[in-house]
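Incident review: delayed structure delivery

Summary: a single-chain prediction request sat in the queue longer than the usual turnaround. Root cause was a stuck worker, restarted by the on-call engineer. No data loss occurred. The affected request and its eventual output are reproduced below so the record is complete for anyone auditing the incident later.

Affected input:
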Amino acid sequence: MSSLIAATRFSVLDRSRTRQGHDGPEALRDTVRLAQDLESLGYHRIWVSEHHGVPGVAGSAPTVLAAAVAAATRTIRVGTGGVMLPNHRSLVVAEQFGVLESLFPGRIDMGLGRSVGFTDGVRKALGRDKHDADDFAAHLAELLGWFRGTSGTGVHARPAEGLTVPPFVLAVGEGAAIAAEAGLPLVIGDLKDREKMLRGIDTYRAAFRPSPWRAEPYVVVAGTVAVAASEEQAHRLLIPEAWSMAYARTHGTFPPLPTAEYVRSLTMTEKERGFYASGLRGQLYGTEEQVADELERVLEESGAQEVMVTTSTHDRAGLLDSFRRLARLAELPAR
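Output delivered after worker restart:
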């Protein structure tokens, strides 16, 4: 096995995707069970996401879900991928992570993003508009100030102040430059748009300024990775997510994940077929040997220290088998 792969950390972002025939509460419980499985397989961290008003995603309150995941595990790091800062007051975010770190010391990550609600209706319900994302750098600086006791307001974030909860920036648009300016680790995707990802990493490394949080650049590349006994079986795991993305782009709503067999039975419109094909193109999938070869190329090109897998599919057993095979090829230290 490649020494490059063996030296790389592997982690998972789980979005608590709902599946056709299953409800949101079950999706949340699935995330907790998956965290336990990933811990036993030796994965470094599991993150949960923030989405609002999306039929296909149950994960709407990441710090709450992170608490449940951390309580059900012992050693795996737990975090958010991410908390969307424009949606929240930075003091409240600091307090939430301060509580998490106090309850589960040394295991909590603070993944932070700049997206606002997916639709006008969601943004209105959150009391935000799409331009709030423009102030992400200021939101980020304010949040970090609460931990360092430098807010200048005379108010103290309890119990966050003085605690060290590692912050990460999720790269969207200007995210790579913002992460570099703040001296924070960068999480960047996706693997299917390799050239764009590598440009973002180059921007980040060239502009990185050491900070109290991080002395040197740290890069996490994120994307879909599917591993199975055959290339066709691995490809099958990608089908539900590709169709859900195609449906969202043509109907304006992100649906629960269907089965691969259901998608294959559909008669798609030309527009749907184009988005569906695009969703399948460039993904990292195959047998253990095929995925190992491609992963090594990704790591050589990017110089990333960590890979965060974001795969979603209807077949939970197939997904867990994929994570098991990936752990084996990466020689993760099973617990």
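Verification: Residues 3-224+294-329 form a domain with the TIM Barrel fold (CATH 3.20.20.30).
Action items: add queue-age alerting; document worker restart procedure.
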